[in-house]
Task: inverse folding
């Protein structure tokens, strides 16, 4: 890796070099879900002024694939590539709700669940019951479970009945707790997911051109 330039050696320690970004960037821009979701996410961010995120499951955790920021977006220090426990936020709970039962059960019982705030739900039975409620209504909402002051509403991206990820809108807790605003966000994000699903299936099959 050092010879190919992907790591550097400083003070006797190896560190990732900036060249690693070329691999990560190429992988992201070749991802069909990213290419399809990005324009929709930008539109929702501009419409709502909030932070819009795309989360996928990777190795039993939630991975942020992409974010778009509206003018009033919360600055949370999150970034594409960041990983978080699935049970600590609405996007992760949506993913848990639509994973096969055996996979979800294994994740919820794979040792103690991390507690990010005092509102984080860490009881596997309570999370399983919440999983069932999310599947019934088709979306998830949380506030103060991942970060105090942060609320989130998320819906699954289902294409041909297969889970591809979750789309979410992040806003201050007070705004997400407002039922009329919460409903407005839900409608916007569900409409976007519908368009993402259609465009993913029928928007062409060629490999996206690298930027």
Result:
């Amino acid at each position: 890796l050092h010879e190919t330039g992907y790591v550097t050696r400083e003070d006797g320690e190896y560190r990732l070099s900036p060249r690693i970004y070329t691999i990560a960037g190429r992988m992201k821009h070749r991802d069909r879900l990213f290419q399809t979701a990005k324009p929709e996410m930008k539109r929702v961010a501009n419409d709502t002024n909030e932070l819009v995120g795309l989360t996928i499951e990777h190795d039993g955790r939630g991975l942020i694939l992409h974010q778009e920021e509206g003018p009033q977006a919360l600055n949370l220090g999150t970034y594409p590539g960041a990983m978080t426990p699935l049970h600590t936020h609405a996007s992760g709970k949506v993913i848990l709700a639509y994973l096969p039962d055996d996979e979800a059960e294994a994740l919820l019982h794979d040792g103690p669940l991390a507690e990010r705030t005092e509102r984080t739900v860490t009881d596997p039975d309570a999370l399983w019951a919440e999983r069932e409620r999310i599947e019934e209504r088709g979306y998830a909402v949380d506030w103060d479970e991942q970060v105090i002051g942060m609320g989130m509403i998320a819906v699954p991206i289902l294409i041909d009945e297969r889970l591809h990820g979750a789309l979410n809108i992040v806003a201050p807790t007070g705004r997400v707790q407002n039922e009329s605003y919460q409903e407005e966000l839900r409608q916007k994000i569900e409409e976007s997911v519908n368009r993402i699903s259609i465009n993913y299936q029928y928007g062409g099959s060629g490999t996206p051109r690298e930027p």
Summary: DSSP finds seven helices and eight strands in the chain. The first strand starts at residue 7 and ends at 10. Residues 205-211 have pLDDT under 50 and may be disordered.
